[in-house]
C-alpha cells in the first residue's frame, strides 16, 4: 500500500505537465508534524521557513524549484535534530548530511535524466517523513513515562470515569445505555451462589500447607491445571499480594462474571464484552489468551 502511494506521487510529477499537488500536500504534512511537536517559540519560524505558497509558485514556474525544496528539506532535517534527543543529534547529522549530498548529486544530473529531480524529491521526502514518524513515537513514549505515575494513581481512575461517562452518559440512564452489562450481570447471577459455595467447600477440604490454589468450576470446565513450571500462583515469600475475594455480593458477582467472560472458547472481541469493559477490553483479551494456553 505504501509503495503504491509513492508510485502515484512519482507518476504525478513526471511528464510535460507535472502535478505538484501531492508534493505540496506532503510538505504540508511535514510542516504540520514539526509544528505540532515544536515549542511555541519555534512555531512561527517553522511556518516562515516552510512556506507552501512560495513552494507552489516556484514549482509551477519551474524556476528555482529544486533549490527552494532543498532548503525546505534541509531546514526540516535540522529542526528534527533540534527536537530529538541530544544523544542522537550527532548520529542524525551524519545521516542527514549523507542524504543531502545524495540529493545534490541527483539534482546535478537533472540535465542528463529528466526524472532525476523527481527521484531526489521523493527520496528526501520519504526519509524526512520516516524520521518524523520515529520522533513522534519517541515523544509519545516519553509522555507516557511522564504520565505513568498519574495514570497509576487516582488521576487514572478519574480519567476512566470521565471517559466512560462521556461515552455512555449518566448513571440514571444505565438501563438504556448499558444493555450488554445488564445482560452479563443477569447471566452471572444465576451461577454465583453455586460457584461460591463450591469455592468455599474446596478451601475447607484443602490442607493449609498445600500451595495449590483451588479452582472453581468456571476454571475447571474443559481445561486442565498448569504444571508446576507454568504456574503463575504467587508462592511463599512473593512480594506480590493479590486481593482475595471478600465474599460480598458485588465482589463475587464481578469476579465470577469475569471468569465466565474469559472462559469462553471463542476469542474475545470488543463488540462482545459489556460496555463497562470496552475501554479496557484488551486486558481481558490478554488474560483469556493466557488461560487458553493452560495445558489440558
UniProtKB/TrEMBL annotation:
GO terms for biological process: signal transduction. It holds the Pfam family Tcp11. InterPro entries: Tcp11 (IPR008862). It comes from the Eukaryota. Belongs to the TCP11 family. PANTHER family: OS02G0556700 PROTEIN, TESTIS-SPECIFIC PROTEIN PBS13 T-COMPLEX 11. This is Uncharacterized protein. It comes from Triticum turgidum subsp. durum. The lineage of its organism: Eukaryota, Viridiplantae, Streptophyta, Embryophyta, Tracheophyta.
Amino acid at each position: 500500500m505504501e509503495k503504491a502511494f509513492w508510485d502515484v506521487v512519482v507518476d504525478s510529477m513526471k511528464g510535460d505537465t507535472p502535478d505538484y499537488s501531492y508534493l505540496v500536500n506532503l510538505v504540508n504534512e511535514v510542516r504540520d508534524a514539526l509544528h505540532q511537536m515544536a515549542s511555541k517559540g519555534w512555531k512561527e519560524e517553522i511556518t516562515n521557513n516552510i512556506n507552501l505558497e512560495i513552494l507552489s509558485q516556484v514549482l509551477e514556474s519551474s524556476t528555482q524549484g529544486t533549490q527552494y525544496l532543498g532548503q525546505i528539506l534541509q531546514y526540516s532535517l535540522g529542526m528534527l535534530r533540534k527536537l530529538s534527543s541530544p544523544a542522537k543529534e550527532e548520529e542524525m547529522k551524519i545521516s542527514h548530511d549523507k542524504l543531502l549530498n545524495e540529493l545534490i548529486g541527483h539534482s546535478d544530473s537533472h540535465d542528463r535524466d529528466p526524472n532525476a529531480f523527481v527521484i531526489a524529491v521523493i527520496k528526501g521526502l520519504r526519509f524526512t517523513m520516516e524520521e518524523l514518524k520515529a520522533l513522534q513515537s519517541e515523544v509519545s513514549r516519553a509522555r507516557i513515562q511522564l504520565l505513568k505515575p498519574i495514570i497509576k494513581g487516582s488521576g487514572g481512575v478519574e480519567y476512566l470515569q470521565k471517559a466512560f461517562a462521556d461515552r455512555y452518559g449518566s448513571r440514571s440512564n444505565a438501563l438504556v445505555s448499558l444493555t450488554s452489562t445488564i445482560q452479563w450481570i443477569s447471566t452471572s447471577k444465576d451461577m454465583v451462589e453455586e460457584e461460591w459455595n463450591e469455592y468455599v467447600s474446596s478451601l475447607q477440604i484443602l490442607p493449609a500447607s498445600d500451595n495449590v490454589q483451588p479452582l472453581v468450576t468456571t476454571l475447571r470446565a474443559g481445561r486442565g491445571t498448569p504444571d508446576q513450571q507454568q504456574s503463575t500462583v504467587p508462592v511463599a515469600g512473593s512480594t506480590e499480594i493479590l486481593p482475595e475475594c471478600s465474599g460480598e455480593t458485588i465482589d463475587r458477582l464481578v469476579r465470577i462474571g469475569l471468569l465466565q467472560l474469559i472462559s469462553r472458547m471463542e476469542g474475545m472481541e470488543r463488540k462482545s464484552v459489556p460496555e463497562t469493559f470496552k475501554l479496557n477490553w484488551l486486558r481481558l483479551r490478554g488474560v483469556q489468551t493466557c488461560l487458553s494456553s493452560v495445558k489440558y
